[in-house]
């Protein structure tokens, strides 16, 4: 049987490694894998649909679906998950000592529809009671000027968002023209150790752990998505891809659990896995809908409340029905 040629753009994750190198095959598929930087991959996929399947920004995908732009079909495969308390940067001496102090301040985001920024704003609003309308928001590139939104927004009444085309968020923060920045990528000023910039939550890990235990949310940053034309032409691909990604993930977790050999260049990996299992259960990085429903529902709430999605999407309307149905057989 002739295999279907398929292109896949994906980051360099250990939990997709066995799929990338062919150790775990995608049933019925001859896969061509492109390993690309995140920003380039996302731009080329969302703006030009250059790949059949690609890692993609969760926010961009759901924003397009809510606009009835159905070019992409996301799978409940989540290659990147990161808590975002660590992604709030403030000026030293700028009067921001606690999240509540951001009310009424000037805050920058690289894109309003950046997934990380949506989670950070959700934290501010839902965990700390900050009225997002009280903040004067600024949109610009984190370390280079000129970044722009990739999707149309439907900002809620009262939200002020100013686009800055000729300066970076990092420079504006250092110069005192911003009080804070919400960004997945650290401002260059912070990365180089500029004493004028710090994290709002300096010791963020115990705060993120308490948040995870309280809310059950483990933030999902990226999904794997298919071009709809590819999906509609061969509907079986959705399950074939899902099963391959899931098997590669399971193999990665087994490597992490191995106490006889070190497959990752870090100490205490097996111990860290045991700790993650204590917090999240036996499978600390699950794919599929039900095990992730709390996180998915929270994100779709935030995306709608913040004007990234024009209407509140249902989880079942986001992902292909055949994948979740397979778990009910």
- Write down the secondary-structure element order: EHEHEHEEEHEEHEHEHEHHHHHH
- Let me know the number of strands: 11
Number of domains: 2
CATH architectural grouping of the largest domain: 3-Layer(aba) Sandwich
Do you know the CATH topology of the largest domain?
A: D-Maltodextrin-Binding Protein, domain 2
Q: What is the overall number of helices?
A: 13
Helix-strand category: alpha/beta
> CATH H-level name of the largest domain... which superfamily?
Periplasmic binding protein-like II
Overall shape: globular
Radius of gyration: 20 Å
Within the largest sheet, what's the order of strands? 8-7-6-9-5-10
User: Are there runs of 5+ residues with pLDDT below 50, and where?
Assistant: none
Strand content: 15-25%
A few lines on this structure:
The protein has about 325 residues and is α/β, with parallel strands linked by helices. It has helices at about 15-20, 40-50, 60-65, 115-130, 170-175, 190, 205-215, 230-235, 235-255, 270-280, 295-305, 315-320, 320-325, and strands at about 5-10, 30-35, 55, 70-80, 90, 105-110, 135-140, 160-165, 180, 195-200, 220-225.
Characterization of this structure:
There is one protein chain. The protein has 329 residues and is an alpha/beta fold. It has 2 domains: 4-82 and 219-326, 3-Layer(aba) Sandwich (D-Maltodextrin-Binding Protein, domain 2); 85-215, Periplasmic binding protein-like II (D-Maltodextrin-Binding Protein, domain 2), CATH 3.40.190. It is 38% helix and 18% strand. The protein has 13 helices and 11 strands. The chain has helices spanning 14-20, 38-48, 58-66, 115-128, 169-174, 188-191, 204-215, 228-233, 236-257, 269-280, 293-305, 315-318, 321-326; strands at 4-10, 29-35, 53-57, 72-81, 88-91, 106-109, 136-139, 160-163, 180-182, 197-199, 220-227. The strands form 2 sheets. A 6-stranded mixed beta sheet has the order 8-7-6-9-5-10. Strands 2-1-3-11-4 form a 5-stranded mixed beta sheet, sandwiched between helices. Helix 1 packs across helix 9. The radius of gyration is 20 Å and the shape is globular. The model has no long low-confidence stretch (mean pLDDT 96).
């Amino acid at each position: 049987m002739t295999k279907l040629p398929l292109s896949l753009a994906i980051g360099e994750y250990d939990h997709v490694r066995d799929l990338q190198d062919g150790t775990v095959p995608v049933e019925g598929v001859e896969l061509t894998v492109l390993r690309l930087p995140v920003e380039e991959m996302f731009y080329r996929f969302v703006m030009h649909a250059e790949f059949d399947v690609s890692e993609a920004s969760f926010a961009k995908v759901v924003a397009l679906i809510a606009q009835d732009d159905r070019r992409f079909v996301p799978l409940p495969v989540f290659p990147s998950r990161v808590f975002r308390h660590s992604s709030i940067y403030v000026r030293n001496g700028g009067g921001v000592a606690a999240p509540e102090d951001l009310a009424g301040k000037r805050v920058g985001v690289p894109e309003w529809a950046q997934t990380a920024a949506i989670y950070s704003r959700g934290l501010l609003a839902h965990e700390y009671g900050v009225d997002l309308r009280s903040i004067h928001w600024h949109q610009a590139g984190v370390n280079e000027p000129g970044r722009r939104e990739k999707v149309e927004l439907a900002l809620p009444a009262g939200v002020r968002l100013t686009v800055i085309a000729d300066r970076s968020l990092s420079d504006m923060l250092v110069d005192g023209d911003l009080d804070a920045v919400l960004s997945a990528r650290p401002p260059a000023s912070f990365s180089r150790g500029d004493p004028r910039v710090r994290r709002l939550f300096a010791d963020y890990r115990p705060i993120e752990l308490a948040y995870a235990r309280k809310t059950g949310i483990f933030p999902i940053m990226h999904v794997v998505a298919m071009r709809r034309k590819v999906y509609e032409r061969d509907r079986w691909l959705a399950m074939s891809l899902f099963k391959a990604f899931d098997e590669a993930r399971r193999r990665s977790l087994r490597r992490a659990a191995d106490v006889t050999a070190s497959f990752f260049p870090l100490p205490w990996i097996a111990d860290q896995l045991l700790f993650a299992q204590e917090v999240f259960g036996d499978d600390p990085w699950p794919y599929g809908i039900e095990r992730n429903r709390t996180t998915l529902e929270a994100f779709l709430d935030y995306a709608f409340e913040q004007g990234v999605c024009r209407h509140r999407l249902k989880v079942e309307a986001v992902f292909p029905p055949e994948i979740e149905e397979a778990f009910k057989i």
